[in-house]
């Protein structure tokens, strides 16, 4: 158990819909990262938050957005869903120290039909 | 640009055989490198990081700055080692990791 909690485990929805994925980081970790894992693209970094502020952006579509709340949990919002958004979405957290690794949650498996 | 290359998509070996999973990186500064393992599309678990120079589950990895490599090795593969292995690079002050495409290790009995 990494200590990073993600809900829900699975999500099945239709094209055009909007979903929210939730992540609680490990106790004491201020940074949260979101990654998308698809079969053809591998692991793609989406976005990072640190103590409520957006810190870095990766390959995140405009239809996607995220935020980190004062209690440090984070939500990833995916809207106008397309079939190609079907993937595993991972959240990770880390201590802000040099050489500290990312600790990943169990992921949310999103299926868009 | 920072990049991680894992040249083998699939590596198949027999139980007891040595294993080497290749990882090359592209980064001009001082890198932080990690190996993660993923069993059956579950969460990614940290296996090794270059700074610790430890052996986990019999795996070791050495950073070779001259060859910009961080290959993962195990002298005797076990069936339970079958999984996806990802090499990852942290470049600069940003905290996010850049992942390679992964290598699927299959250990046959």
- Largest interface, C-beta within 8 A: A-B, 25 and 22 residues
Uncertain runs of chain B are none
Rounded Rg of chain B: 13 Å
Categorize the overall geometry of chain A.
globular
Biggest sheet architecture of chain B:
6 strands, mixed
Tally of strands of chain A:
11
The biggest beta sheet of chain A reads:
7 strands, mixed
Distance between the termini of chain A: 31 Å
Oligomerization category of the chains in this entry: heterodimer
Please state the structural category of chain B: mainly beta
Radius of gyration of chain A, in Å, reads: 13 Å
Strand content of chain B: 35-45%
Q: What is the helix tally of chain A?
A: 0
What is the N-to-C order of secondary-structure elements of chain B (H for helix, E for strand)? Answer: EEEEEEEEEEE
Give the number of DSSP strands of chain B. Answer: 11
> How helical, in percent, are the residues of chain B?
under 10%
